[in-house]
Amino acid sequence: MILHIEKEELIFGINTVQRAMAVKSTLPVLEGIYICADAKGLQLICTDLSLGIQTFLACDIEEEGKVVLPGRLFAEIVRKLPDGDVDITIDDNLNVTIQCMGSRTKMKGLDPETFPDLAEVSDASSFTIAQPVLKDMIRQTIFAVATDETRPILTGALLEIQQNNLTMVALDGYRLALRKEALSAPSEEKQIVIPGKSLSEIGKLLDDDGDDVHIMSQDTHVMVEIKNTRVIARLLDGEFIKYRQIMPTDHHTRVQVAARDLFDSIDRASLMAREGKNNLVRFQISENKLILTSNSEMGDVYEEIPIAMEGQDLEIAFNARYFTDVLKIMDDETINLDFTTNISPCVVNPVEGDKFSYLVLPVRIY
Amino acid sequence: MILHIEKEELIFGINTVQRAMAVKSTLPVLEGIYICADAKGLQLICTDLSLGIQTFLACDIEEEGKVVLPGRLFAEIVRKLPDGDVDITIDDNLNVTIQCMGSRTKMKGLDPETFPDLAEVSDASSFTIAQPVLKDMIRQTIFAVATDETRPILTGALLEIQQNNLTMVALDGYRLALRKEALSAPSEEKQIVIPGKSLSEIGKLLDDDGDDVHIMSQDTHVMVEIKNTRVIARLLDGEFIKYRQIMPTDHHTRVQVAARDLFDSIDRASLMAREGKNNLVRFQISENKLILTSNSEMGDVYEEIPIAMEGQDLEIAFNARYFTDVLKIMDDETINLDFTTNISPCVVNPVEGDKFSYLVLPVRIY
């Protein structure tokens, strides 16, 4: 293989695929970057078997060939190269030379035949969505994905198409985040569960503008096509929680509050709550005031926020983090908090629209 | 105690003194911030017994008093307060209330009488220096302070006044960094050794502009006065290495090279050197070229840099980090490397001036 490529293009490609590279693996080849130059162009691939990323790069191929390079070292070397064109040559014994200006690095490649194939996903059932929209949907749900493995299905997010709406749902047993978007074109109904880690990496590959992405799925895998890049993620097996049955349909108390004020107050209260180990913040709702309190051996915090309220007074308590998490990702200035009783979930909604919804369980207080 | 203070002023004060706060101590009071409001104004103090910082803040004192507050929690609470004036009150039982807009925090203070006194340092022997100059002197030597404790005196930097020159020297047995400045006024000759950690914190308190600082020392302590802040550091006991005897006076090979090129090449070579564990980079100097090579099981790196040279050809090897460390802190575009033999130290100097000098030992190669 002999090829010439701009340093910046190569760095972009490495940064793209490296997200799927295994960090520590018993198979050294999974800690590598697969490089193949042939009639289709130059492609890089990384995979940790759960997630695979393939990208095509612009370059000048003088002689075809393929190899797997030790990923971390290759990436670091390329990032530190002088600015200019990079020449990469590989001989028949997989000896690789990377040359750029006065810098020349030689390293031993690994056998490309030992690199696992990525799963094939046909485009029989696909839909299209704008990059910033998908990025936003991921950002507003991923934080609620379960981090412990006791119920493996909850370590993923549900992606559901029903009646031309795309819904993403994540929940961990204590809170649930839901984000909905209308699709621009009719699409086959489906329910798939994408592992949180894979979804998070997909989110990082998406631009705030840029072309639409195509998403296609089969039984076991989903493929997301972003320009010259394909991300293939293994799906989680099993049935997701029937989330519609959990969502409360009614409320006895509605609070309208400035999201920023609420965040700042809970953030302060949680400093003291943290000292008390349980991270508990109490809400007292009455007379158009929300009073937040927390305490521990170290002392106590009292916070008063003006609100607009409808319905009954209420005293209820929450794990502070479940509130700060959601307030960080909501873009709305004013939000609604809907309560039923002090032992049933609170629903956090934007005042306008129904694209986002968040449900959080209270902590029982005596 | 009752006082009113601007949040930003209080945060500035906390940030200043917190650098001397003990992180984990058997004496809880050392993890605290001492606060005293009296006729002298409001002062904050932290000390870990080795380093002490005291600062005076502008505020409105309604009633005098003093207390020690749990430092980390107090600092976090103040940083997160709403923008505005902060009211702090302390009752006779050391119950502290911090109030700002709708936020009110209560906590229990510690007995201020248990807080250790800072050492007194008289201004009998003092000198004055501009903040940016002292900041620069610290930055250009501190990295060479020894990090292991086998020779405790080397964990500090020497500060020497001789013939109206202030010299700062740090060395760790493998390399030595020296920075010199002429003092604007005659000052008593002295040699003190300031612990690296204390010197580093002093460096962080200095501005790139701003008033001159006053430095005074006695047998056991040095005091640095920066505006309203006093830093008092315990000195290291013992005699520093006679560094003048180490500095080579002659050279057989002189290399003039662009600092940025040399840094980039060593940086790349060190990626491979790192894989080889010993971090070794070989220098080959001949024909107005500097060739750098490194190798490991993973492969090898070859770097070629144009230089101007005088004297003999040379092959010599170094620990890559000892070169990248110094190249990071030199501001000169072009530097001189002076060599004698491949088993004697290399001296790195700016082409212009003699304010800075760096000596590094080679690694023997066979």
TrEMBL record, chains A, B:
<feature type="domain" description="DNA polymerase III beta sliding clamp N-terminal">
    <location>
        <begin position="1"/>
        <end position="118"/>
    </location>
</feature>
<dbReference type="InterPro" id="IPR022635">
    <property type="entry name" value="DNA_polIII_beta_C"/>
</dbReference>
<dbReference type="InterPro" id="IPR046938">
    <property type="entry name" value="DNA_clamp_sf"/>
</dbReference>
<comment type="function">
    <text>Confers DNA tethering and processivity to DNA polymerases and other proteins. Acts as a clamp, forming a ring around DNA (a reaction catalyzed by the clamp-loading complex) which diffuses in an ATP-independent manner freely and bidirectionally along dsDNA. Initially characterized for its ability to contact the catalytic subunit of DNA polymerase III (Pol III), a complex, multichain enzyme responsible for most of the replicative synthesis in bacteria; Pol III exhibits 3'-5' exonuclease proofreading activity.</text>
</comment>
<dbReference type="Pfam" id="PF02768">
    <property type="entry name" value="DNA_pol3_beta_3"/>
</dbReference>
<keyword id="KW-0548">Nucleotidyltransferase</keyword>
<dbReference type="InterPro" id="IPR001001">
    <property type="entry name" value="DNA_polIII_beta"/>
</dbReference>
<comment type="subunit">
    <text>Forms a ring-shaped head-to-tail homodimer around DNA.</text>
</comment>
<dbReference type="GO" id="GO:0006271">
    <property type="term" value="P:DNA strand elongation involved in DNA replication"/>
</dbReference>
<protein>
    <recommendedName>
        <fullName>Beta sliding clamp</fullName>
    </recommendedName>
</protein>
<dbReference type="Pfam" id="PF02767">
    <property type="entry name" value="DNA_pol3_beta_2"/>
</dbReference>
<keyword id="KW-0963">Cytoplasm</keyword>
<feature type="domain" description="DNA polymerase III beta sliding clamp central">
    <location>
        <begin position="129"/>
        <end position="240"/>
    </location>
</feature>
<dbReference type="GO" id="GO:0003887">
    <property type="term" value="F:DNA-directed DNA polymerase activity"/>
</dbReference>
<dbReference type="InterPro" id="IPR022634">
    <property type="entry name" value="DNA_polIII_beta_N"/>
</dbReference>
<dbReference type="GO" id="GO:0003677">
    <property type="term" value="F:DNA binding"/>
</dbReference>
<dbReference type="GO" id="GO:0009360">
    <property type="term" value="C:DNA polymerase III complex"/>
</dbReference>
<keyword id="KW-0239">DNA-directed DNA polymerase</keyword>
<dbReference type="GO" id="GO:0005737">
    <property type="term" value="C:cytoplasm"/>
</dbReference>
<dbReference type="InterPro" id="IPR022637">
    <property type="entry name" value="DNA_polIII_beta_cen"/>
</dbReference>
<comment type="similarity">
    <text>Belongs to the beta sliding clamp family.</text>
</comment>
<keyword id="KW-0235">DNA replication</keyword>
<keyword id="KW-0238">DNA-binding</keyword>
<keyword id="KW-0808">Transferase</keyword>
<dbReference type="Pfam" id="PF00712">
    <property type="entry name" value="DNA_pol3_beta"/>
</dbReference>
<feature type="domain" description="DNA polymerase III beta sliding clamp C-terminal">
    <location>
        <begin position="244"/>
        <end position="364"/>
    </location>
</feature>
<dbReference type="GO" id="GO:0008408">
    <property type="term" value="F:3'-5' exonuclease activity"/>
</dbReference>
